[in-house]
Write a structure and sequence with these properties.
Layout (H helix, E strand, L loop, with lengths): L1 H4 L11 H12 L2 H6 L9 H29 L3 H4 L1 H4 L5 H34 L4 H16 L2 H30 L2 H5 L11 H16 L2 H5 L5 H32 L9 H8 L1 H27 L9 H15 L9 H26 L24 H19 L8 H22 L8 H17 L1
Helix pairs in contact: 2-9, 2-13, 4-11, 4-13, 4-17, 7-8, 7-15, 7-17, 8-15, 8-16, 9-13, 9-15, 11-17, 14-15, 15-16, 17-18, 17-19, 18-19
């Protein structure tokens, strides 16, 4: 089990393209993504919602795939990779934020699973206790997460198959009773306040939110092709299906004359019954297992010389996730939570992409594994250029979302601004640093350790 958890060092991936694709398919086919789609109908028409879901998913997937590819090339999880741009100590800032954001995701999804289970149990028995069922749902996810990435890799494909089967049944039901033209004819309610730009921004922000796990998962990919194609296809398919499922389910409710409440699983479970409840519950198990694993790896990899063991960490963090899943009031703040994640991590990922692919010329060295000193030490462990650029990007993202209400949304402008600010500010470092031959960090670390053992032996 400790071997499966990988501890704090780089790992050499072994998973195939198909396995990586299925992991992403299952992990992102999640109730929060499904219920995000319920915000779009009738805020905009059905055709526009479909188009924006596809475009936004593809745009967001580009960022996710690039960050995941860095993980494959280095063997390090996402937050450990931030050392390259932010510095050994500066990386603690995004790492800490990642723990909080992923924990928030885990809580929200466990609550939705609990509400779904509670609705089914109450329907058939009259007993209702959503807090209890939320805690029990998350307890199961914690048990699954204990088995580390190998357990995840084995179970996720089966969960993906189950969810796709039930999703196909739901789509068939929805479009057998009503035609696409019926869905398109649903009157748009402008009072809901969701413009096409806002919808696009939410879809892209969903990908950004999941990018925090990109390298955590993709560092286990066998090669770059498995990483890029597997995560790109898996994420894109799962997000489009999940969001369209939510939009379609809401449209179905409206066409049948039922009440459609955004981000509430009960009405659509009432319409589609047990199959949709199964999709929701299984999706939470798949995603919360991966998310809790990501939280644990972030904690372990917060510093190169990690002294935290996987099992104690996952048990402590798992206990926190179970306790937090009982705070049902958080559900009313989901869109605010999603916007907050976007405001923080959009500039982080823009900086990471520039730093690795342009400034460091697609190569991080074993200095990434040092506790201090080396190329990524910058100024006492902090790259203040990255910190300042991140702060500017996060502020712009927040202002565009809440103050200026940009017609193009907040995610794309904040990403572009951060990208070019960091590129311009760090070009002098690129010019004065000679490129080094690429070597996977797992191999480089093994060679370094062997050389040290030889030196000690002498």
């Amino acid at each position: 089990m400790e071997t499966q958890s990988d501890q704090a060092g780089p790992v050499r991936g072994t998973l195939s393209l198909a396995r990586i694709g299925l992991i992403w398919l299952a992990a992102n086919f999640v109730v929060t993504t499904l219920l995000t789609g319920t915000f779009f109908i009738p805020a905009i028409d059905f055709a526009s919602a479909t188009t924006l879901i596809v475009i936004g998913t593809i745009v967001g997937a580009v960022v996710l795939v690039l960050v995941g590819y860095i993980g494959t090339r280095t063997g390090l999880p996402t937050m450990a990779l931030t050392r390259g741009a932010f510095g050994i100590r500066g990386s603690l800032l995004p790492s800490l934020a990642n723990v909080f954001s992923l924990m928030g995701w885990v809580w929200v999804q466990a609550m939705l699973a609990g509400i779904t289970v509670d609705y089914i149990v109450a329907t058939y028995t009259g007993y209702s206790n959503p807090v209890l069922f939320s805690a029990l749902s998350q307890t199961l996810a914690v048990i699954l997460a204990i088995f580390g990435h190998e357990g995840i890799a084995r179970i996720e494909p089966w969960l993906a198959a189950v969810m796709l089967g039930f999703a196909a049944w739901i789509f068939t039901t929805a479009f057998t009773e009503f035609t696409p033209a019926d869905y398109q004819a649903i009157p748009v309610d402008l009072d809901l306040g969701f413009t096409p730009a806002i919808v696009l921004d939410i879809v892209i922000a969903t990908a950004i939110a999941w990018t925090v796990l990109a390298a955590d998962i993709n560092r286990h990919a066998r090669n770059g092709r498995a990483s890029v194609v597997g995560s790109g296809v898996g994420y894109t398919i799962s997000t489009i299906i999940a969001m369209m499922l939510g939009a379609t389910a809401t449209g179905y409710l409206l066409l049948t004359g039922a009440d459609a409440i955004p981000f509430d699983p009960a009405p659509i479970v009432a319409a589609f019954g047990i199959p949709l409840a199964v999709v929701i519950f299984v999706s939470v198990m798949a995603t919360n297992v991966v998310a809790l694993y990501g939280i644990t790896t972030s904690a372990i990899n917060a510093a190169p010389r990690g002294r935290i063991r996987f099992l104690p960490a996952v048990l402590v963090l798992g206990a926190i996730s179970i306790a937090g899943s009982t705070w049902l009031g958080l559900l009313g703040q989901f869109t605010t939570f999603l916007t907050m994640i976007g405001a923080f991590f959009v500039p982080v990922f823009a900086i990471m992409i520039v730093d690795y692919f342009i400034i460091k010329r697609r190569n991080y060295t074993t200095d990434m594994l040092r506790a201090e000193g080396g190329r990524y030490w910058y100024t006492r462990g902090v790259n203040w250029i990255a910190i300042v650029v991140w702060a500017i990007g996060a502020a712009v993202s927040y202002l565009l979302a809440y103050v200026w209400h940009s017609p193009t949304g907040a995610t794309i402008p904040a990403f572009v601004l951060t990208f070019f600010l960091y590129l311009i500010a760090m070009l002098p470092e690129r010019r004065r640093t000679a490129p080094e031959p690429y070597e996977h960090l797992a191999d480089a670390a093994a060679e370094r350790d062997a050389a040290l053992e030889t030196e000690v032996g002498r």
